[in-house]
Automatic annotation (TrEMBL):
Organism: Streptomyces spongiicola
Lineage of source species: Bacteria, Bacillati, Actinomycetota, Actinomycetes, Kitasatosporales
Pfam family, one: TPR_10
Protein name according to UniProt: ATP/GTP-binding protein
InterPro entries: NLR-like, P-loop_NTPase, TPR-like_helical_dom_sf
Amino acid sequence: MTGGTDGHAEDHGRVYQSRGDQHITEHHHYRSEGAEHGGPDSVRRPAVGRCPVALRDRGEVMERLRESVGAERGGRVYVLYGMGGSGKTAVACALFDEVTGDQGRVGLWVNAADRASLRAGMLAVAADRGAADGELLAARNGLRPAADLVWRYLDRSAEPWLLVLDNTDEPEILRDGNWLRTSPRGTVLVTTRRAAARWWPGAELQHIGVLPREDAALVLRDLAPHSGTPEQAARVADRLGRLPLALTLAGGFLSHQVIDPWTMDAYGDQLDGDEGVRLIDRGAEALSQADPRHLVGLTWQLTLDAFEERGLPEAAALLRLLARFAAEPLPLAVLNHAGIGAVLPRARTETALRALLDQSLSELVDAEGTRCVQSHGILLDSVSAATPADLVPALDTTAVRLLDAAVPAAPDAGPHDPRLRLLVPHAPAVLRHIGMASAAEALAVATRLAVALHRTGDYLSARETARTAADLARRHLGADHRMVLAARSRAGRALFRLGRYAEAEAELRAVRDIQERLFGAGDPDTADSCYGLQLVLANLGRREEAVALLRDTVAGRRSALGPAHPLTLRARAGLLEMLPAADVVTEEGGALLALPSECERLLGPDHTVTLGARHNHAWALYLLGRFEEADRGIRQVAEAYVRRFGPEYPVVLAARQLLSRTRAALGHMAEATALMTDVVERRERGLGPGHPFTVASRRLLDSYRPG
């Protein structure tokens, strides 16, 4: 095997290229337990139909298995585990073919999907290794221990062997009779979905996951080479989650379109939603229809049915709940909430999650230093599509309730919080799944998440969260719904912070106009959009318009929320920054300059609004030429900001920029230059060199430097 990329498939052949995990088409024939079973036709060939025409770049797992078996070391058990469709059997088949061909080792293949198949297959192994008909008959009739008979002949085998126990998804049946043993004469290789180490004492476990992106694209290209470019194949592979089973079915579908061939792009465009799962399964060969393991819409149903049979219905309930969220890491804390009780007993959540982990339906991952659970996207789509309609309302309500509990009830300014970013993909996912009854509540949660992200300085995530949520909720609530407009307003505020002033103005002005028409000028939502719009206009140099809007915002908030509300005080603090020096002194009869003391009395000295008022008060003092007072005030504010937010937070840099101004005004040019140099460097790293804030900071720094 050279690892080249020139493979192709003919007729029903399959080509798989990977440096990781593999999957091939399999044909299994199952009988219910207790049915008459005469045994498999052969244990000398993998019971998987046609093996791949070419299997290249098998990766580290194949190399490890190959070396171990080739080293003539017996007495070992290797367990390949992973979710359904991940290619465990393909790896086993490739190893089987190698050791029986190149090494001359005896290969023995047993379907261990159920007790009857396991027992019949293992007795056939004993027959292959020399057991007499009388011995086999006695074992079949229960007159002698069947497992002991099989392993006695395996231990006596004149030839070294590789025994594959395929589809061992119920390891409990191995313990009944102690079917899984070791022997110095051979190696045992098990494929299973069951990941818990307790099932495999003494075995070496190897996880089989999805394919690397490049190799997943190659699988599609090998199966359907004329359907698209490598990049188009890679995009489709990403949409399929790079799951080998899904890739195989997709490639099979594309390769068999004759009258009106599909392109990769056309196929990818049809993969969204429940119909996407059905489209994938259309690639199954006719003989595979009876086998759920070869259909992504059904392969995991085997496990869900097993949960019910074992008295673990809460595991299926938890998986259906996870299917309301995204196929991204979900913090475990989200599930640890009383609200989950509407779907499954909270006390059984741990048991349910362990069952999903054990069956490789989910996995624990560490993301941003947070313990999370994650499931494959195709699995979640399949489970969602198969969820009974009568369960959907409770699942929707619970998903929204859990997400609501995970988002701060009253988002405040603060340093970057990685836990918030982990929730970003889940808010739109919930909105995609839910119906009209829960849409407004879900949108409110998503918008609050966008506010929380905004206030930690993650403006890009805030914008995407708010924009996507508004677009998704519009289909249920309508474009003029109050919550849809509020989400759009929040997206506009984030656009401003991203330096996209023209887009921000257009969005905020459009939303403000609709809110004013529908709710009135004094409505709190209208005032919020006015406040955001005036920030944009001020940074565009249109100060008079901005001041007029800000005064309207102050009046509206004072009327609707009261004079002591934090939002009212925040708007008044904005006047300290926006008004010319002469107007600051006379505004509100001269009371505006006393606003920091008023905020401290009403909200406390460490409240975000109080700190903002003190910040803007220092700016007003600077404009009034009271440089000593401004310098003392902004230094204290900057120090408080750093303690609370860290050195990179946007408002910290704004405060340090003002401090550089006051130091320069007092003649301390070296210190002023050092401060601004640091601000420019941090803004370039955080916002980019072309952001308006960065450009303004660099311009100020340049002004400090002589000619």
